[in-house]
Write a structure and sequence with these properties.
The chain has 597 residues and is an alpha/beta fold. The protein is 44% helix and 14% strand. The protein folds into four domains: 10-28 and 163-249, Glucose Oxidase, domain 1 (3-Layer(bba) Sandwich), CATH 3.50.30.10; 43-151, PtsI, HPr-binding domain (Enzyme I, Chain A, domain 2, Orthogonal Bundle), CATH 1.10.274; 274-282 and 443-592, Alpha-Beta Barrel (TIM Barrel), CATH 3.20.20; 305-438, TIM Barrel (Alpha-Beta Barrel), CATH 3.20.20. Bound molecules: phosphoenolpyruvate and magnesium ion (MG). The site of magnesium ion has 5 residues, from helix 17.
């Protein structure tokens, strides 16, 4: 579709990425491969062309620097922007550009594009995980330099398009895909929501949007073709729907069906403390967080604690591993903000779909089944001990629990406990304050762990079910693949039966079992989980008020009966149907007639 010709009222469908609705103008982040103007130079033009290149480097570096300054203090993504700025001025890249300009008489844009591609290719072929992961960064920075040249930017200007790091008005961001660097660069800007072409509801873009309390529709085919910058978009994140240039009726229709308020702010908490069901049973509601700064909004949403802090984001996009002190600062700030409420710190869950570029890991054909999570941690005990030492020190300021991702074997928990002792010895030897010990929990994210949960719980202080991975591994559906996303439901009876086993293992030993996958944020999922006996749910903070309100109108007996039927059902669709048949009116009353459908 040509520019300015987006079809009014066009409906685009994608996957529900993050609930909530938004209405506002679109800003497009262009794909990185924007056209490169190519022109042969006359010999006397070379110096001028290299001066243009030097100006573009300064402009891009200044723009990364401005983006970095806009980040809240302590945001780990700041290091990504620092790395990009360094890369823009990289000597090897500069030499490559000069060679293309002087020897081959290529204009600066052409020279940059080729020099960056060559460098990326060289890095990509290296047998070093860290350096080869940098090849994408070089491509990204190269594209930024080309656009700075095309737009002839000065160091005090920011480019438009993909590098639109400055949003002057509240806008909906539309992109082919969004990297953590992209979202980091938008921190503090008036983003109303996200639309991307790539990803699924449990890919990390969606998780990030949920953590920020922003609506997102993921996996919208052709979004960047159908939407023109400036188009008004109506975005319904919960239903995976985007309307381009909606009519007032389109917008009104959605509101009258009770799908929530336009905007980004989560609902204000109506109550604090655990959710109380109609029969008086309590369900603890905690928040999943990825950045220390999200804790304030988690508290505002009524979170009783942090049920999952994804500490791996302290490792992402940086050249060096985070130090013990850096991690201690981040953990202490979360613990202090939670003011006595429990904080569950998950040890770095890297590998798989989360790039572990600070680790020299091998190239893997199946990274999801490779050296990831606890396997990577135990392969690098030095890094784990450093992180555990930071956790022990932060626990001097408030209650901390340690949670180990992707446990499959009992000895993985035992080994982590040994390393916790080692970490403590190191902290004590340095005369620093720390906790005597920390509770260690195992995440149950693979069928093997669920099937031996009664053995794992013998060595763990608590269990936490990670349904995002549990669904992936039980149903053999890649959580990042849109083509199979319709098969990925935590309501599949196979997943529910595994969850039930885990709950029973916890009950037989009196050890708590929580749920921290995205299932907890979904009203139907939360109801079924509690019906199965889970009494602690950790979810994106913005979902807490709604889930709390839902529990107030249901009873344990109702949910237990529904869960019993669900365990015997034929498939996920039947489970959804039977929950609606049993509790439909209550669901509609609170969250709209087709939420979660
Ligand atoms: C999960 O797998 O359910 C989970 C909570 O962990 P993550 O989404 O970070 O893999
Ligand atoms: Mg997981």
């Amino acid at each position: 579709m040509s520019e300015g010709a987006s079809q009014a009222g066009l409906r685009l469908e994608g996957l529900a990425g993050s609930t909530g609705v938004a209405l506002g103008p679109a800003v497009l982040l262009e794909p990185r491969d924007t056209a490169v103007p190519r022109r042969r130079l006359r010999a006397e033009e070379c110096d001028g062309e290299l001066e243009r290149f030097a100006r573009a480097v300064a402009a891009v570096q200044a723009s990364f620097q401005r983006a970095r300054e806009r980040l809240a203090v302590g945001r780990p993504e700041a290091t990504i922007l620092d790395a990009y700025a360094l890369m823009a001025g990289d000597e090897l890249l500069g030499r490559g550009v000069e060679r293309h300009v002087r020897d081959e008489l290529r204009n600066a844009e052409w020279a940059v594009a080729d020099a960056a591609a060559e460098l990326a290719c060289r890095l990509g072929s290296l047998d070093d995980e860290y350096l080869s992961a940098r090849s994408h960064d070089v491509e990204f920075v190269g594209a930024r330099l080309v656009r700075a040249l095309v737009q002839d930017l000065s160091p005090c200007e920011d480019e438009d398009g993909r590098g639109a790091l400055v949003l002057t008005a509240p806008s909906i961001v539309v992109a082919r895909e969004l990297s953590p660097a992209d979202t980091a660069a938008m921190s503090g800007m008036p983003v109303l929501g996200f639309v991307t072409e790539i990803g699924t509801g449990t890919s990390h873009v969606a998780l990030m949007a949920r953590a920020l309390g922003l609506p997102a529709v993921i996996g919208v085919e052709g979004a960047t073709r159908h939407v023109t910058a400036g188009d008004t978009l109506f975005l319904d994140g919960g239903h995976g729907m985007v309307i381009v240039r909606p009519s007032p009726e389109d917008v009104e229709g959605v509101h009258s069906r009770g799908r929530g308020a336009v905007g980004r702010a989560p609902e204000a908490p109506r109550e604090l403390g655990p959710a109380t069901m109609a029969d008086g049973t309590s369900v603890a509601l905690l928040a999943n967080v990825e950045r220390a700064m999200e804790v304030t909004s988690a508290v505002a949403c009524g979170a009783e604690g942090v049920g999952l802090y994804r500490t791996e984001y302290l490792f992402v996009g940086r050249r060096a591993l985070p130090t013990e002190d850096e991690q201690y600062e981040a953990f202490s700030s979360v613990v202090r903000s939670m003011a006595g409420r429990p904080v569950t710190l998950r040890t770095f869950d890297l590998g798989g779909d989360k790039q572990a570029s600070t680790f020299a890991t091998m190239r893997e054909a199946n990274p999801m089944l490779g050296v990831r999570a606890v396997r990577l941690q135990l392969a690098r005990p030095d890094v784990l001990v450093t992180q555990l030492a930071a956790m022990l020190r932060a626990a001097a300021h408030g209650p901390i629990r340690v949670m180990v991702p992707l446990v499959c074997n009992v000895d993985e928990v035992e080994r982590t406990r040994e390393l916790l002792l080692e970490a403590r010895a190191s902290v004590v030897a340095r005369g620093l304050a720390c906790a005597a010990t920390l509770p260690i929990g195992a995440m149950i994210e693979v069928p093997a762990a669920a099937l031996i949960a009664e053995r794992i719980v013998e060595v763990a202080d608590f269990l936490s079910i990670g349904t995002n991975d549990l669904v992936q591994h039980t149903l053999a559906v890649d959580r990042g693949n849109r083509a199979v996303a319709h098969l990925a439901s935590p309501l599949h009876p196979a997943v529910l039966r595994l969850m039930h086993r885990v709950v029973e293992a916890g009950a037989s030993t009196g050890r708590p079992v929580s749920l921290c996958g995205e299932m907890a944020s979904d009203p139907v999922g939360a109801l079924v989980a509690v019906g199965l006996g889970v009494r602690e749910l950790s979810m994106e903070a913005s979902a807490i008020p709604k889930v709390r309100a839902l529990f107030a109108v249901v009873t344990t007996a109702e949910l237990t009966a529904v869960a019993r039927l669900a365990l015997a059902a034929r498939g996920a669709v039947d489970v959804e149907r039977l929950v609606r048949a049993a509790l439909g009116e209550k669901l509609e009353l609170l969250v709209g007639p087709d939420v979660g459908a």
